[in-house]
């Protein structure tokens, strides 16, 4: 998180970082859906928790 703060100095930069994060989260969710469709046991609670943590950080950056 500290590296994101160091890189994002203006509101516009913050928005770019947040939007890029949202894009990565959506891609991760799609990948998880595909993995779950093939093998439901492949998605562990740790994986879902990590994704939720990332989503929370991005929402914090965007002020959501």
Task: Report on this structure.
The chain has one domain. Helix 2 (11-38) runs antiparallel to helix 3. It has three helices and no strands. The protein is mostly helical and 64 residues long. It is elongated. It has helices spanning 2-7, 11-38, 45-62. 5% of the residues are buried.
Give a concise summary.
This protein is an all-alpha fold and 64 residues long. The chain has 3 helices and no strands.
- Runs in which pLDDT lies below 50 for 5 or more consecutive residues are none
> Major sheet, described briefly?
none
Secondary-structure element sequence? HHH
Q: What is the strand content?
A: under 5%
Radius of gyration: 14 Å
Q: What's the count of strands?
A: 0
Helical content (DSSP H or I, runs of 4+): over 70%
Distance between the termini: 17 Å
Structural class by helix and strand composition: mainly alpha
Counting H and I runs of at least 4 residues, what is the number of helices? 3
Write the layout of secondary structure elements.
Layout lengths: L1 H6 L3 H28 L6 H18 L2
Which labels suit this protein?
64 residues; mainly alpha; 3 helices; 81% helix
């Amino acid at each position: 998180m500290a590296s994101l703060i160091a890189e994002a100095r203006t509101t516009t930069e913050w928005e770019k970082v947040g939007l890029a994060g949202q894009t990565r989260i959506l891609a991760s969710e799609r990948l998880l859906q595909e993995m779950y469709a093939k093998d439901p046991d492949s998605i562990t609670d740790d994986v879902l928790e990590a994704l939720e943590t990332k989503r929370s950080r991005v929402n914090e950056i965007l002020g959501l």
